[in-house]
Design goal:
The complex is a heterodimer of chains A (493) and B (496). Chain A is α+β, with helices and mostly antiparallel strands and 493 residues long. Chain A folds into four domains: 97 residues, Trypsin-like serine proteases (Thrombin, subunit H), CATH 2.40.10.10; 87 residues, Trypsin-like serine proteases (Thrombin, subunit H, Beta Barrel), CATH 2.40.10.10; 100 residues, Roll (Pdz3 Domain), CATH 2.30.42; 133 residues, N-terminal domain of MutM-like DNA repair proteins (Alpha-Beta Barrel), CATH 3.20.190.20. Helix content of chain A is 18%, strand content 34%. In chain A, a hairpin with a 4-residue loop joins β5 and β6. Chain A is flat and about 75 Å long. Chain B is α+β, with helices and mostly antiparallel strands. Chain B folds into three domains: 228 residues, Thrombin, subunit H (Beta Barrel), CATH 2.40.10; 97 residues, Roll (Pdz3 Domain); 144 residues, N-terminal domain of MutM-like DNA repair proteins (Alpha-Beta Barrel), CATH 3.20.190. In chain B, a hairpin with a 2-residue loop joins β26 and β27. The longest helix of chain B has 15 residues. Chain B starts with 10 loop residues before the first strand and ends in an 8-residue tail after the last strand. The chains are: A alpha+beta (493), B alpha+beta (496).
Chain lengths: 493, 496
């Protein structure tokens, strides 16, 4: 055992030595292009959507780009009610605003608030953006001490992979960097450089494994390219769900040769670029833009080696660009061309960052539109704890579309004189109100304008199936709720 | 039918029973009663749903019982469930007498036993049954609970009379009487007496509460004895409706219910149940067999408020029930005929059955029921939803069995069959699977297509097995995993 320690010690020393050698100079010069970002985050209360939760604060770093805009993670700015830039030494601050934020790729571009004095930012210098790095290469991760000194931690890129660093279910090219970080005052989001050029933003750090997830320069540059024209469209998507073709029996059934790769298209989202191109369920995608896709969905990337096919769509193109596909259908190869679009709006949104959840209160019945975040609020075990019918809708939205654009549900019942007997009814999908089909919150609001035969009737998907409300009683309850501090009875998207 | 799904919070079954005696009872009567209370030893073999081809687990336990007639011993169903061997011992005797189960009713946790040789039991007193004891009246429980080998007597009062779930089957609720006499493991099946008469059978307790023992009262016992009068136990029958209490004035007004405190809304009607086609959701039930139903769904029986289902509790398949209900303000009178509703037993724990399964090319198929559900604890919302709605959405009409892939054995053929464990099989070779027998027929058909395809609910791609590889794979995988039979389909029957 003891002999194993020797080389490891030697290695540590050599790194220390390298730092000293390459940085004989001062720390101050190294904070070039860095500033602090302080944000106040406030999310909506899931159970009482008319309320905001207690605010929380976040401190992180931003990179000053050429032209003076500040790049940071989307997570830093999402749900922020107040954003502020602060100089490394704490001498200057200025309120900031968002130019563009991408929750999927976890990036945000900020600038000083219009009219505010952010002149001091110009004195900080800028960080030019760099190009792709390779696994094995050394990078620098930047932090700021309380006294304003910059701390530089050297790390090396372990691997590249498509990771979801913020909004769940969205995977983008990231570097996994091995580095031993210390906790410093502004550690939320950290710029990563190589040879003095910004090549990524650290999104998360696992102190146990000492691995940082860093949003790659490829994604960063695509994001900056997208916003250059002044509008942020977001990353494109093909709009398909796929299954790997590793299983040899499945391959034989599909008629795939052993020397072919291919991924099986299991679902084509209506309204997507894939649907428009003529791609169908059951097709097998063999190549994308000339890159052969193997049976596990990987292609050979010029800079990174084996990468998931998704990077060819989401990480390499802008909305509106075209993608060439070679597919296998009924044993024959076929060429298709898809124009990439933003993913179609889904029945159950995966997130509601910076949006206020729509709701309606009627006589004490609380209605909301279902989102993934609502279900995630049921705790760590939400996949087994959240209400079964709502979970099923999340997993199989196609079974619940039926002309809906959102899934409206009765989230809970406030005990009021109008809701006697309904106390136990909660988390029920609403299908109809006063004889009208409910397709989103707006339709429910309008349906509840007109009680039929002197009573409101609301149809839900489980016992008691119909809930009746007395219009007079519910109106007076609504009035009382407003008097007792409820800000509004409804919020529409 | 929502009530079928209610879990029994912390109820524990007690294999052993208490006994108590009315104050007036003479000493001699006591001695006779003690003699008629026997100790029951049961060796069990419980099915293992994880490896359905195996013999299961061997175990055992003891309980109590009592003589109610010539060579007739009453005890709890759970004392003699999954029995391989039943032995009865008289008080003070060293002899163990082999016995067998004549009738067993899992839905009300009662069983009737007989011994092979009745001579040692001749001359014993047959205990008689009394009525439901009054609240706060004294009772004693007699039996052979833990804590010693000899007979035990504990005394207490009737604390509550209620309609509660029976833990043995999980889903059935009947009348229970709660007593504060100590009831402990081993008391199960023993008599609870008042004035020398049996007023209940001790059967379960509450784990998290003190001095709460439950006994099965005589209306339930008498119904059981009447049911087996024709030589077989036919189980309880159900109205097949769920109600929703009419506490809301707007709801009452909308359904045109008079403001007299009477009437409960019918929230759902079970497909193919006795009220199917007769009642509709939104109807308001006003009376049942002439007894007015209040807004909460209760009726009055013998001076006590009980749920309206109590009327049906004492009836049998083929019996009639008169219903008066309101539909859109119009009164209707109907008479329905009660009938067995076997599909709801999917939610009941099953005993004494060999688990059905089909093994095919490394995949194990099993029908979904309570036993399978508690064994695997399926986490897929789809499987949970199908299980929950099996009866209410009449899923049984299309699929008598919900066939689930429960295991994927390791083999070169199955290396890449991932994500299919715990999913419901929809189709095999393009045909909708009706039940496990059907799945077996489709998988083991004489002329299989080149590729056998198995489509699972909610999964994007089918499982594909080349027909040419099936035989060799079956042999190989069965040998590797010690699976010595390819299937057990049971006797073709809807439910037990």
């Amino acid at each position: 055992m003891s002999c194993n320690y020797l080389p490891f010690l030697a290695l540590l020393l050599s790194i220390g030595g390298a730092i000293c050698l390459s940085n004989p100079a001062h720390a101050a010069a190294e904070s070039e292009g860095l500033l602090r970002i302080n944000t106040t985050i406030q999310t909506h209360n899931v159970a009482q959507p008319w309320e905001l939760n207690q605010p929380s604060r976040r401190r992180g770093l931003g990179a000053v780009l050429k032209g003076g805009n500040i790049l940071t993670t989307g997570e830093m700015a999402a749900n922020a009610t107040y954003i502020e830039f602060e100089s490394a030494d704490g001498a200057h601050t200025v309120p900031a605003e968002v130019i563009a934020i991408d929750y999927e790729a976890n990036l945000a571009l900020l600038k000083p608030e219009a009219g505010a004095d952010g002149e001091w930012i110009k004195t900080l210098g800028t960080l030019p953006t760099g190009g792709s790095a390779k696994p094995g290469e050394e990078v620098d991760i930047w932090q700021l001490e309380d006294n304003g000194d910059a701390i530089r931690t050297a790390g090396s890129i372990r691997s590249v992979d498509l990771l979801s660093t913020f909004a769940s279910g969205h995977f983008f090219l990231c570097y996994e960097v091995k580095a031993s970080m210390q906790s410093a005052s502004s550690s939320y989001t950290l710029p990563v450089t190589r040879d003095g050029k910004l090549i990524g933003i650290l999104a998360s750090y696992n102190s146990k494994d000492q691995i940082c997830d860093v949003v790659s320069p490829d994604i960063l540059n695509q994001f900056l390219k997208d916003v250059r024209d002044g509008t942020h469209e977001g990353f494109p998507s093909l709009g398909i769900a796929t299954v790997l073709t590793e299983d040899p029996q499945f391959r034989k059934w599909l008629g795939l040769r052993e020397d072919q790769g291919g991924i099986y298209v299991s679902r084509v989202l209506p309204g997507s670029g894939a649907a428009e191109s003529g791609l169908q369920e059951g097709d097998v995608i063999l190549t994308l833009d000339g890159h052969g896709i193997d049976r596990r969905g990987y292609y050979q990337d010029a800079s990174y080696g084996r990468l998931s096919w998704s990077h060819l769509v989401r990480g390499s193109k802008q909305v509106g660009e075209k993608l060439a596909l070679v597919i296998m259908r009924d044993g024959k190869e076929k060429n298709l061309e898809a124009t990439l679009r933003r993913p179609p709006d889904s029945l159950i949104p995966s997130h509601m960052y910076d949006k206020s959840p729509p709701y309606l209160i009627k006589g004490g019945l609380v209605f909301q539109e279902l989102t993934r975040s609502y279900l995630e609020a049921f705790g760590k075990e939400w996949r087994s704890r959240a209400p079964l019918d709502l979970l099923d809708a999340l997993n199989n939205p196609e079974d619940y579309e039926e002309g809906r654009s959102r899934l409206v549900f009765l989230s809970r019942v406030i005990r009021t004189p109008a809701t006697i007997g309904y106390d136990q009814v909660n988390n029920r999908i609403v299908t109809e109100a006063n004889g009208q089909k409910i397709t989103d919150m707006k339709s429910l609001v309008s349906a509840l304008q007109n009680p039929k035969d002197g009573v409101h009737s609301i149809r839900i998907d489980d016992v008691p199936y119909v809930i009746y409300l007395d219009p007079k009683a519910s109106d007076s309850v609504d009035k009382a709720l407003l008097q007792r501090g409820l800000p509004a009875l409804e919020r529409l998207p | 039918m929502k009530k079928l799904l209610l879990p029994v919070g912390g109820a524990v079954l007690l294999c052993s029973g208490p006994f108590s005696m009315g104050q007036k009872g003479p000493a001699a009567a006591n001695a006779d009663i003690y003699k008629s209370v026997v100790r029951i030893e049961c060796a069990t073999q419980s099915a293992d749903y994880r490896t359905p081809w195996n013999s299961g687990r061997f175990g055992g336990g003891t309980g109590s019982g009592f003589m109610i007639g010539p060579n007739q011993f009453m005890t709890n169903a759970h004392v003699v469930s999954n029995a391989n061997r039943v032995l009865i011992t008289r008080r003070g005797s060293a002899q163990k007498h082999p016995a067998r189960v004549i009738h067993i009713a899992h839905d009300c946790d009662l069983a009737l036993l007989e011994v092979e040789d009745e001579t040692p039991f001749e001359g014993l007193t047959y205990l008689e049954f009394g009525e439901v004891p009054a609240l706060e009246s004294q009772v004693r429980a007699i039996g052979y609970p833990v804590g010693g080998d000899r007979i035990s007597v504990t005394r207490g009062v009737v604390s509550r009379i209620d309609f509660r779930p029976y833990a043995h089957s999980i889903v059935d609720s009947h009348l229970v009487v709660q007593i504060d006499a100590a009831i402990n493991p081993g008391n199960s099946g023993g008599p609870v007496l008042q004035d020398g008469k049996v007023v209940g059978v001790a059967f379960q307790g509450l784990r998290q509460a003190d001095n709460t023992g439950y006994m099965i009262p005589t209306p339930v016992i008498k119904r059981f004895l009447k049911d087996i009068g024709d030589g077989s136990y036919d189980k309880y029958v159900d109205l097949g409706i769920t109600e929703f209490a009419l506490f809301n004035p707007a709801m009452r007004k909308a359904l045109q219910v008079p403001e007299n405190g009477l009437g409960v809304m019918v929230a759902s009607v079970l497909p193919t149940g006795p009220c199917d086609g007769i009642m509709e959701p939104g109807d308001v039930l006003l009376s049942i067999d002439g007894k007015p139903v209040d807004n909460a769904g209760n009726i009055e029986v013998e001076g006590e408020k009980v749920v309206l289902h109590e009327v049906v509790e004492r009836k049998f398949a083929g019996d009639e029930v008169a219903l008066e209900f309101l539909r859109k303000g119009e009164k209707k009178n109907v008479t329905i005929t009660l009938k067995a509703f076997p599909h709801s037993r999917i939610y009941a724990v099953r005993y004494g059955e060999r688990p059905r399964f089909v093994f095919f090319a490394g995949l194990v198929f099993q029908p979904l029921d309570r036993n399978l559900y508690s064994t695997y604890g399926f986490d897929s919302p789809r499987v949970r939803k199908i299980f929950q709605n099996y009866v209410e959405d009449a899923i049984f009409k299309e699929r008598e069995d919900v066939v689930v892939i429960t295991r994927v054995e390791s083999d070169r053929l199955t290396s890449f069959i991932t994500g299919f464990k715990g999913t419901v099989v929809d189709e095999i070779n393009g045909e909708k699977v009706r039940d496990l027998n059907h799945a077996y027929e489709l998988l083991y058909a004489d002329n299989l297509p080149e590729f056998i395809t198995i489509k699972c609910n909610g999964l994007a791609r089918p499982i594909v097995i080349p027909a040419a590889e099936v035989d060799s794979a079956n042999k190989r995988i069965m040998k590797q995993n010690g699976i010595f039979r390819s299937h057990y389909l049971g006797e073709k029957q809807p439910a037990s």
